[in-house]
Amino acid sequence: MTSRPNGEPLVRLSGVNKWFGELHVLQDIDLDIARGEVVVVIGPSGSGKSTLCRTINRLEPIEKGEITIDGERLPEEGKQLARLRADVGMVFQSFNLFAHKTILENVTLGPLKVRKQSKGDAEKRARELLERVGVTAQADKYPAQLSGGQQQRVAIARALAMDPKVMLFDEPTSALDPEMINEVLDVMTSLAREGMTMVVVTHEMGFARRAANRVVFMDGGRIVETAEPETFFTNPQSPRAQDFLSKILNH
Amino acid sequence: MRITRYAAGFAAAGLLLAGCASEAGNQAEEAPETTAEVEEVEFPEGSTMAEIVEAGELRVGTKIDQPGFGLANTAGEPEGFDVEMAKIIAAKMGLSEDQITFTETVSANREPFLVEDRVDIVVATYTINDKRKELIDFAGPYYEAGQDIMVAAGNPENIEGPDDLAGKSVCSVEGSTPAENIRTNYPEAELVLYDAYSKCADDLRNGNVAAVTTDNVILTGFVAGAPDAFELVGNPFTEEPYGIGVQKGEDEFRDFINDVLEEAYEDGTWAAAWDSTAGAITGTEAPEPPSVDRY
Amino acid sequence: MSFLAENFPLIRDAFLTTLSLAVVSGICALILGTVLAAMRVSPVPALRGLATFYVELFRNTPLTVVFFFLAFGIVYVDLQFPSRFITAVAALSLYTAAFVCEALRSGINAVPAGQAEAARALGLDFRQSLTTVVLPQAFRTVVPPLGNVWIALAKNTSIAAGFAVADLTALLQRLSNSAADELALVFVAVVAGYLVITLPSAWAISVLERRLAIVR
């Protein structure tokens, strides 16, 4: 798990600042994510970790600084940005499956509309992915007919169908009932093992220990501490990280 | 002045829908001066006049949707040239305005109302014709209307009469008698039908129609308002002599009304009635009164 | 009843005129209203402003005034529609589009923001996410309000009668004078004409509503 890939960072954030009105939600963020690296972002609520995740595919525009993906600067809203987003998979807290489309259609939509794949190819690949995340039997159902865990696994399959260079997970298990959390984490863990580059915002410390190469701890819109998981969890350096860990690990 | 309505609800609603009240504004605002002075008179025993005087009530059928002739004002009382004619006749019988009972008569029920003795006279833009004379009798005429044509100033299309309308667009109001006349007798003309003559005038001004047709009294008003834009062809192609309907065989009564009309022509009350009603709307002087037809 | 039989060609033509006014204007208004709704939710502020201006202008102007302007106003800037029917279609479409836009916009707003975000995150551009994800869901929630717009449009066609279009209401005006004694029958025929257009639509709308309902 600790094999460190080399080369240029796949995702680079440098001097990133963002405000929501008066609120300075991201302050001077510098973060490089290497190809194949799994970065877990943790921090108290309101620390800016979700916002950070959403700036990487520009669902949240930034006011200052620069974000590059695979050496390419994030463009302004438009066709260019859409093309770049296609290479960045995203999994949301609330799944956001397309309510009017079947599970299979949810997974094939991107490949058909953006990648311009043939219907046959897209469906074949979609069924493979659905099998991989374990929801093959639900292919012709609508999202509302599935459990939360199933929906989130479909959402992962939907993102994977685009063959993304990097996957963003914005609190993927926060909206799930406890018994469904593991089925989603298992899929994510196996993805990490296969070498997918991942940015995961989560409270799941077990997943961070098991799958992350690096843990980024955020508080008050800043990156406070970055470390390997074992180091971070056993020997946090900053008082705020110590405080945060003492609160959640005592649960 | 009292007014009773015999008209069925449907008919009243229909008239409202037909938008007839659209030109009512001007007239309703100021009630015309009364042009008739009440006189004391004696009538031969047993005559219709004597009976009416005895009853103390002259029952008059009139229209309430004809601007300038018979149009209900905001208080619901009819005003117009026809109404003034009724007042002149009442005055010569020694009856005051309060002793006139107006009843709305739409085109279709004018003869029935006379035949059934619901009214004594009908003054309601009532064109004299032989078919009607089989059922009732007419005094008058007291006014000579006729369908005419209005064109753009200078008459660029050289329209001199209805036959020249063939292949040309001519504007009128849907549901009106002039429109039906064109539809029936001049089918070559291309009819454009709005719900108000003012829109026809706009279309004529814009060059979208070649002509506007309806009763000359209405067209005269438009020409008076915009002499640079419009002109009247001045060749009425229908004769609409307006008469006063009385019950069949009431020759004595008819003679009396004819006398009253001729007196009104002489002493200026007829012209004064015109000036305060139709003339006030159209901005035209009183025409030469038609000679009464004592058939 | 023989009166209705005699005047059947008149009634039929008037009905067809009213029907085609409603259908043609309805299609134009749906297209224009959809474009306007897209503009109102677009990321470009100028487009949003333009669409908002349009909607407020036409939603707050009486339809008769719109008719009047198109029939008699635009000649002053040397514009003119080729026929009075087209003038009426233009007035009805321009006016109704504002209401279609607002119905659609409320539908778009009812689609959770996450749906559009997920579409954008997949790499769909603005137009694609609108047409494949947001609008199809918006249309379902707007079937009832759009149905009301359609019924209002069908009845609003009657304004055209005042602007030289021989529709059902013009027929009523015509026959209420020339056939005053048959007025009750004329009314029945005209009202039936409108009902034939609006009642099946109301029924179709409720069927459509049930069929398109999505589970959330």
Automatic annotation (TrEMBL), chain A:
<keyword id="KW-0472">Membrane</keyword>
<keyword id="KW-0029">Amino-acid transport</keyword>
<dbReference type="InterPro" id="IPR003439">
    <property type="entry name" value="ABC_transporter-like_ATP-bd"/>
</dbReference>
<dbReference type="InterPro" id="IPR030679">
    <property type="entry name" value="ABC_ATPase_HisP-typ"/>
</dbReference>
<dbReference type="Pfam" id="PF00005">
    <property type="entry name" value="ABC_tran"/>
</dbReference>
<dbReference type="GO" id="GO:0015426">
    <property type="term" value="F:ATPase-coupled polar amino acid-transporter activity"/>
</dbReference>
<keyword id="KW-1003">Cell membrane</keyword>
<dbReference type="InterPro" id="IPR017871">
    <property type="entry name" value="ABC_transporter-like_CS"/>
</dbReference>
<dbReference type="GO" id="GO:0005524">
    <property type="term" value="F:ATP binding"/>
</dbReference>
<dbReference type="GO" id="GO:0016887">
    <property type="term" value="F:ATP hydrolysis activity"/>
</dbReference>
<dbReference type="InterPro" id="IPR003593">
    <property type="entry name" value="AAA+_ATPase"/>
</dbReference>
<keyword id="KW-0813">Transport</keyword>
<feature type="domain" description="ABC transporter">
    <location>
        <begin position="11"/>
        <end position="245"/>
    </location>
</feature>
<dbReference type="InterPro" id="IPR027417">
    <property type="entry name" value="P-loop_NTPase"/>
</dbReference>
<keyword id="KW-0547">Nucleotide-binding</keyword>
UniProtKB/TrEMBL annotation, chain B:
<keyword id="KW-0732">Signal</keyword>
<dbReference type="GO" id="GO:0030288">
    <property type="term" value="C:outer membrane-bounded periplasmic space"/>
</dbReference>
<comment type="similarity">
    <text>Belongs to the bacterial solute-binding protein 3 family.</text>
</comment>
<dbReference type="GO" id="GO:0006865">
    <property type="term" value="P:amino acid transport"/>
</dbReference>
<feature type="signal peptide">
    <location>
        <begin position="1"/>
        <end position="23"/>
    </location>
</feature>
<dbReference type="InterPro" id="IPR018313">
    <property type="entry name" value="SBP_3_CS"/>
</dbReference>
<dbReference type="InterPro" id="IPR001638">
    <property type="entry name" value="Solute-binding_3/MltF_N"/>
</dbReference>
<dbReference type="Pfam" id="PF00497">
    <property type="entry name" value="SBP_bac_3"/>
</dbReference>
<protein>
    <submittedName>
        <fullName>Glutamate ABC transporter substrate-binding protein</fullName>
    </submittedName>
</protein>
<dbReference type="GO" id="GO:0005576">
    <property type="term" value="C:extracellular region"/>
</dbReference>
<dbReference type="InterPro" id="IPR051455">
    <property type="entry name" value="Bact_solute-bind_prot3"/>
</dbReference>
<keyword id="KW-0813">Transport</keyword>
<feature type="domain" description="Solute-binding protein family 3/N-terminal">
    <location>
        <begin position="57"/>
        <end position="281"/>
    </location>
</feature>
Automatic annotation (TrEMBL), chain C:
<dbReference type="GO" id="GO:0022857">
    <property type="term" value="F:transmembrane transporter activity"/>
</dbReference>
<keyword id="KW-0029">Amino-acid transport</keyword>
<keyword id="KW-0812">Transmembrane</keyword>
<feature type="transmembrane region" description="Helical">
    <location>
        <begin position="14"/>
        <end position="39"/>
    </location>
</feature>
<feature type="transmembrane region" description="Helical">
    <location>
        <begin position="60"/>
        <end position="79"/>
    </location>
</feature>
<dbReference type="Pfam" id="PF00528">
    <property type="entry name" value="BPD_transp_1"/>
</dbReference>
<protein>
    <submittedName>
        <fullName>Amino acid ABC transporter permease</fullName>
    </submittedName>
</protein>
<keyword id="KW-1003">Cell membrane</keyword>
<dbReference type="InterPro" id="IPR035906">
    <property type="entry name" value="MetI-like_sf"/>
</dbReference>
<dbReference type="GO" id="GO:0006865">
    <property type="term" value="P:amino acid transport"/>
</dbReference>
<dbReference type="InterPro" id="IPR000515">
    <property type="entry name" value="MetI-like"/>
</dbReference>
<feature type="transmembrane region" description="Helical">
    <location>
        <begin position="85"/>
        <end position="104"/>
    </location>
</feature>
<keyword id="KW-0472">Membrane</keyword>
<keyword id="KW-0813">Transport</keyword>
<comment type="similarity">
    <text>Belongs to the binding-protein-dependent transport system permease family. HisMQ subfamily.</text>
</comment>
